[in-house]
Design brief:
Helix content is 37%, strand content 14%. By secondary structure, the protein is of the alpha/beta class. It binds zinc ion.
């Protein structure tokens, strides 16, 4: 399994996030990726390189799943933030006002001149700091996703896009949940564009992959499946319920498997089996796995109880789908264990594939 790692990831290093009325240190830190990289160097699965993709091809791949207005916002967001106040150069950009899109007549069609308002227009939480290096890091992650998709479309059994910030909470025109560009969606679309007729996305992060669901919600050619903490109590709260089955042509092509906080490996694995059956019934010819390791018992912001020793079997179960597979790196905030848990899963996949 080739791994494409993002050389620009450390440029995205938020200082603090807003959590229930106070500023707390960011959970999504550069060390997360460094631990996975170190473990892959200790237990190699294949080549470990930065992505080498054409810049124009990358722009095209990103624009296939994200809106032009949002991408233009992201590209200049840091400069616009500092232009508001030169002292902002020392502070991360976080939103503090939102338009409640689609509710009560608040307008989201008019682009505000005020950057603080624009930041709110394109965000759904205040836990995702935007920093000087965010855009370069996010683009680097998209490049990893594209390179991984190209490797798999070219015949590789699997590939791993190892990047941060993560991506599965980012939608066509919004950031949130530490995510800016949706790497899993970029990989899925790139696989479609390379000729795979039916692509399934099976999200195993603790949190619902709301961004990916939104991007593909009205499409029948990409099945989105997510098993996650029940949004009635767990982030991202406002999406991820079992009755969200897709819309329009996409009706029946989204499957959510919410599980109660505290769920252990046995019930989680049963949900994974249900998810894999849906992938099989769909007739997918390629698979994208947004790989979050925040299902781990020691995760500081999540609530399942999987153990380090469980992940190899999860990888083997995913390999059982028998599909060319792209993994993207998503959550996992027990920093000391995230490398071991990620490589356990990937190694389990590779052994069984
Ligand atoms: Zn997560």
């Amino acid at each position: 399994m080739k791994t494409f790692h993002n050389p620009h990831h450390a440029g995205h290093a938020g200082q603090q996030e807003m959590f229930r009325g106070r500023m707390v240190p960011c959970h999504e830190v550069p060390a997360r990726l460094d631990f996975v990289l170190a473990e892959l160097q200790r237990r190699p699965l294949g080549t470990l390189t930065p992505p080498a993709v054409d810049a124009a091809a990358l722009d095209t791949a990103i624009a296939r799943v994200h809106d032009a207005r949002y991408l233009a916002f992201l590209a200049t967001a840091w400069d616009d933030w500092v232009a508001m106040d030169p002292a902002n150069a020392q502070r991360d950009a976080l939103p503090s006002v939102w338009p409640l899109a689609n509710r009560h007549g608040f307008r989201n069609d008019v682009l505000p001149h005020n950057f603080a308002a624009r930041l709110g227009l394109f965000s759904f939480d205040s836990g995702s700091p935007l920093t000087a290096g965010t855009w370069a890091a996010a683009r680097g992650g998209a490049a990893c996703a594209l390179a991984a998709a190209q490797a798999v479309a070219g015949g590789d059994r699997s590939a791993f896009a190892l990047s941060r910030p993560p991506g599965h909470h980012a939608g066509p025109d919004f950031l949130g949940g530490y995510c800016f560009l949706n790497n899993a969606a970029i990989a899925a679309q790139a696989l479609r564009d390379a000729g795979h007729a039916k692509v399934a996305v099976l999200d195993v992060d603790y949190h619902h992959g709301n961004g990916t669901q939104t991007i593909f919600y009205e499409r029948a050619d990409v099945l989105t499946v997510s098993l996650h903490g029940d949004p009635a109590t767990e982030y991202p709260f406002f999406l991820g319920h079992a009755d969200e089955r897709g819309a329009g042509a996409g009706t029946g092509f989204n499957l959510n498997l919410p599980l109660p906080r505290g769920t252990g490996v046995q019930a989680w694995r049963a949900a994974l089996d249900t998810a894999l059956r849906a992938v099989s019934d769909f007739g997918a010819d390629a698979l994208v796995v947004p790989l979050g390791l925040d299902t781990f018992e020691g995760d500081p912001i999540s609530g399942f109880t999987l153990q380090t020793g469980d992940y190899a079997a999860v990888g083997a179960a995913l390999a059982g789908a028998g599909l060319p597979t792209v993994f993207t790196f998503e959550g996992g905030y027990a920093v000391d264990e995230v490398g071991t848990n990620a490589v356990n899963l990937l190694e389990g996949f590779q052994r069984a594939a």
